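I am still getting used to backbone structure tokens and would like to learn alongside you. Please make up or recall a protein chain and show it to me in full. Would you write everything just below, so we can both look at the same thing?
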Amino acid sequence: MISVVIPSYNRRDCVLALLADVHAQEGADFEVIVVDDRSPDNSVEAIRAAFPQVTLLVNEKNGGPAVTRNRGIRAAKGDIIVGLDSDVTVPDRHVLANVQKRFNQHPNVTGLAFRLYKPDGKSEDTPRWWHPVPIDQYADKSFLTSYFSGTAYAFRREELIEAGMYPEILYMHYEEVELAFRILDKGGSILHCPELSVLHHANEVSRRSEVSVFYKPRNQLLVAVACLPGLKAVQYAVPRMAFQFLTACRRGHLKDFIRAMRSASQLIPRRLEKREPLRPETMKRIGALKQGLAP
């Protein structure tokens, strides 16, 4: 069975539209779990009224996307997790059936990365293309990758849990990057599947400047500390911190950058306690994937 896990925060109309699409799916056995992250609107009441068959969980306090997704994954009964952010729609009624088909075709694949379109259904959602290969050459192809977007994905539940699920310490942003690293380090693989597609409506909640000026530089540093071997961590973090610093100066966000670095310094000891550098074999795989190779 497939468990569809939908994290939701302050997106009542969006999540209702998504739930309508999910419940229109054909050819698959599935359950639906919505985890509300203490929305200040009436999302909870609206979901209960319109979709009483949905398993609805409500966080006691706002925990962020990583916490919210993990709660849904833990509650899931299916052996496959399909994660959909609440600001997507799913016009294709056979997406879940195709997810099951793909996993049957590729028994050794851990996860599937969906193709993300803009609302017009034709344009690629380029800001969320973080795969290690060029979007213009690979968007319509199946390929092994070192990344997936939390906007829309599918994973085998047991392997997702074994990899540690989303790192909750990050709150939001770069949590998929670290989880992808952990999946690869466990010997798993992620396959980009262009036929598994959703429309991403990029709700304003997800475009807050706080993501770019605070969470991005902070979490880039925290991921490097937790995941990358010594020299690789330095090579990863230093140019990114320099770029973020210069960008903050140019755009007038220096105070935010300093705040991000202060927060990172407070969290680094906790990251060092559980630091697990990626294996050399994993680093080689990631390097090969950047060249479009399938190790």
